[in-house]
From TrEMBL:
<dbReference type="GO" id="GO:0005886">
    <property type="term" value="C:plasma membrane"/>
</dbReference>
<dbReference type="GO" id="GO:0006270">
    <property type="term" value="P:DNA replication initiation"/>
</dbReference>
<dbReference type="Pfam" id="PF08299">
    <property type="entry name" value="Bac_DnaA_C"/>
</dbReference>
<feature type="binding site">
    <location>
        <position position="175"/>
    </location>
    <ligand>
        <name>ATP</name>
    </ligand>
</feature>
<dbReference type="InterPro" id="IPR001957">
    <property type="entry name" value="Chromosome_initiator_DnaA"/>
</dbReference>
<protein>
    <recommendedName>
        <fullName>Chromosomal replication initiator protein DnaA</fullName>
    </recommendedName>
</protein>
<feature type="binding site">
    <location>
        <position position="174"/>
    </location>
    <ligand>
        <name>ATP</name>
    </ligand>
</feature>
<comment type="function">
    <text>Plays an essential role in the initiation and regulation of chromosomal replication. ATP-DnaA binds to the origin of replication (oriC) to initiate formation of the DNA replication initiation complex once per cell cycle. Binds the DnaA box (a 9 base pair repeat at the origin) and separates the double-stranded (ds)DNA. Forms a right-handed helical filament on oriC DNA; dsDNA binds to the exterior of the filament while single-stranded (ss)DNA is stabiized in the filament's interior.</text>
</comment>
<dbReference type="GO" id="GO:0005524">
    <property type="term" value="F:ATP binding"/>
</dbReference>
<dbReference type="InterPro" id="IPR010921">
    <property type="entry name" value="Trp_repressor/repl_initiator"/>
</dbReference>
<dbReference type="InterPro" id="IPR020591">
    <property type="entry name" value="Chromosome_initiator_DnaA-like"/>
</dbReference>
<dbReference type="InterPro" id="IPR018312">
    <property type="entry name" value="Chromosome_initiator_DnaA_CS"/>
</dbReference>
<dbReference type="GO" id="GO:0006275">
    <property type="term" value="P:regulation of DNA replication"/>
</dbReference>
<keyword id="KW-0963">Cytoplasm</keyword>
<dbReference type="GO" id="GO:0003688">
    <property type="term" value="F:DNA replication origin binding"/>
</dbReference>
<keyword id="KW-0446">Lipid-binding</keyword>
<dbReference type="InterPro" id="IPR038454">
    <property type="entry name" value="DnaA_N_sf"/>
</dbReference>
Amino acid sequence: MTNETWGLVREELIKRVGRNNYVTWIEPLRLSDLNGGVARFEVPTTFFGDWVSRNFADHIRAQLNTSGVSVDRVEFAVGQSARGQKGQGRAAAPAAPVAAAVSAAKPATARATAKPRAETEEMPGAPLDSRFTFDSFVVGKPNELAHAAARRVAEGGPVTFNPLFLYGGVGLGKTHLMHAIAHELQTRQPHLRVLYLSAEQFMYRFVQALRERQVMDFKEIFRSVDVLMVDDVQFIAGKDSTQEEFFHTFNALVDQNKQIVISADRAPGEIKDLEDRIKSRLQCGLVVDLHPTDYELRLGILQQKVELYRQQYSGLVIADGVLEFLAHRITTNVRVLEGALTRLFAFASLVGREISLELAQDCLADILRASDRKLTIEEIQRKVAEHYNIRLSDMIGPKRVRNIARPRQIAMYLAKQLTPRSLPEIGRRFGGRDHTTIMHGVRKIEELMATDSQMSDDLQMLRRQLQG
Ligand code: ADP
Ligand code: MG
């Protein structure tokens, strides 16, 4: 089985296990070997492997067999490359193989169904995720504009801006908002022909139409919709004939005053290899960006998800501070945040324990490591100076009076504890002091902590503030 086939199988698995489970458990799997009817996958942690094996092994095996890969058993093991992956954005990385799979592997199975689809004139859109509604979308500062614009389009009134162009980094809610628009429009105006698909699917359909000499059908279908939504349009950059067709489709719909909603991972002007005429067309409507999440939004999203999970896993107890901890530490994107929560709940229900801070740290070690904030010595100096009400310059300066030297030693101690810097490196940041001076400072504070409870309280608080 090639990776393309696995890509295709994964696509099918979305339908079987649901998007949430898919993103959390299936997407991170790496096919490592297929031999003698045994498919082996790499997983990031042992727990992960256990969970997938208990809950999804049958689905995976069945789907492999359905897709013509005969497999008796699937196995999961913690693997080398899975380890190497942790440092990167976990959500973004696994998407690529699927993307490749759609164009490379789909034709074989799709060909059989292509005819009836054209005959019944079924809309060639992608299925909508029923969970992506406005109700489940948490609004905060970073996304309020995008949300308001999406709401406006979803009202289905006269077209006031065309297209609506939503952009922002991965996992910030672009797809969620687009599905929400589609759901809302379909509820309010069931007669509307709303077509949602990814740019990649647009390309795939187009290429298929070319190959099967059904370009006229293709044009007709796409030009007869009332609302067209194309997700991740950056995908067609550099794909010339697809861009061309997209441009014509786009113009035809705009001319008929049909609403278009587009998303991309960056602003229209910043998409490389996208034709200028398309860029300028895309900029004609309303361009809004989704900003990276802030702490409040992340916490809001977590709280909302917890409510949902409570219905699923009854008797679940979450200790105070766990959600705050996650919102603070997992800053990459919402998808990772959700994945963390899903895993945490699964784990807690498996072992029947309350979700404590400790359990969260254990169970999510890989995710937390990947999104670790890098604390700098500068930040530590600043914080400590502020706390003891001395000047930042005194941290690196030569003064030796106790009320300055002591805070300086505290900062040295924290720098040693909270950053990976070596003693000589720390010395350099403290005005070029020798590493033995730093060592002396660190020891001094360790001693004091053992005897001076005020000192140890102070340090605990500083540490908490610095680490969040
Ligand atoms: P994008 O398309 O921008 O990469 P998605 O729309 O796929 O991101 O969002 C990733 C995940 O995060 C989805 O499960 C989505 O429901 C969730 N999500 C993102 N933003 C929000 C939000 N503001 N409120 C609730 N869930 C959100
Ligand atoms: Mg998306």
